[in-house]
């Protein structure tokens, strides 16, 4: 290409650029604005993972991994006592779908801490599994013990709160009759209730509220 051809080509390019100068200016401004927004935009909000119920879950259920799903939430949304690995734990109260799993909903230390002062949480074995099936979490009952040899019945504890009624496959025992439940009893009643649940036939009556 000689000098004349180069000059003509350069002039043609210049004319085309001038004809499209508005479009080019708009594109340059758009690029500059996008770069500014990216620089000035605040960082994404902090988030964390929380386990919630994948579906409605009943009290007394032994939690499995497929009962739970992860949700990304703001750190301030996570409730106090949220449990990070609840699979394999026993539900003391029902959970609605999407509800987080907290320690007061599981059988264990957290459940005990949530009870009124002066009470102790412990498992006891009711002699009749059918009677245990009639109970629901939150029931208030009086415990009775029958001596199988003397044939006498005596009161064990009054105003006992039912905290968990595990499923039969969890609470049953091939070597022992009856059905385990978890209750909150007065501290002074613990020794007698614990002894009777092994040596006597333990039943209950519902309290009149």
Question: Any descriptors?
Answer:
209 residues; alpha+beta; five-stranded antiparallel beta sheet; 6 helices; 7 strands; 29% helix
Tell me what you see in this structure.
With 209 residues, the chain is α+β, with helices and mostly antiparallel strands. It has helices at residues 3-19, 21-40, 109-113, 129-133, 168-171, 190-199; strands spanning 48-53, 68-73, 119-126, 140-146, 153-164, 179-186, 201-206. Strands 3-6-5-4-7 form a 5-stranded antiparallel beta sheet. Strands 1-2 form a two-stranded antiparallel sheet. The longest helix is centred in the N-terminal third of the chain and has 20 residues, at 21-40. The N and C termini lie far apart (106 Å).
Short précis:
The protein is of the alpha+beta class. It is built from 6 helices and 7 strands; from the N terminus they run H-H-E-E-H-E-H-E-E-H-E-H-E.
For the termini, the CA-CA separation is 106 Å
For the biggest sheet, the summary is: 5 strands, antiparallel
Strand order of the largest sheet: 3-6-5-4-7
Rounded to the nearest angstrom, the radius of gyration is 34 Å
H-E string: HHEEHEHEEHEHE
Whole-number tally of structural domains: 3
The helical percent reads 25-40%
Mean pLDDT, to the nearest integer, reads 80
Low-confidence stretches are none
The backbone outline, from C-alpha atoms, is rod-shaped
